[in-house]
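Notes taken during the Thursday session

The instructor put the following on the board and asked us to keep it in front of us for the whole hour. The protein is Putative bacterial regulatory protein, arsR family protein. We were told not to look anything up and to reason only from what is written here. First, the residues (155 in total):
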Amino acid sequence: MTVDLDNIDVAIIKSLMQDGRKSFRAISRELKISTPTIKARYDRLVNMGLIKSVRPEIDISKISVSAKKKLPNELVDYLKIQKKSLHINLDNLKVKLECEFCEGPIHEKPKVLKFADIERFFCCSSCKNDYREKYGGRIQSLIEEYEENKKMKKA
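Then, after some discussion, the predicted structure tokens were revealed:
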């Protein structure tokens, strides 16, 4: 199943594509949206599987010849062919979701399991219930850890 991204999601992705090292606070100032909203949206994009990682963009021309010799050949080759800039139009982007339990595609509106500050997406209620049953202990420990961290931040 594909998921529509709203303007805030698209703006966060664009901002991170410009500089993946930006803090949530810097993005919130740039977009004029609260920092907790940026963090929650980012976490949701990660949990959906849309953001898989944030990687450095390395300028190979800045590395000395002696330093290049120390790097594995595969890395040097990769850096040489790496594109200088990547521009992707994110308007009307749709995302294909995969069930967290059976790993099958989600064709309709996903069944969502929310706990702590995490969201998991499922193709059907039975996958959602089976996931909850299988990982119930881990889910409970994450909820407790989340509650404890929340209390510590308030204190």
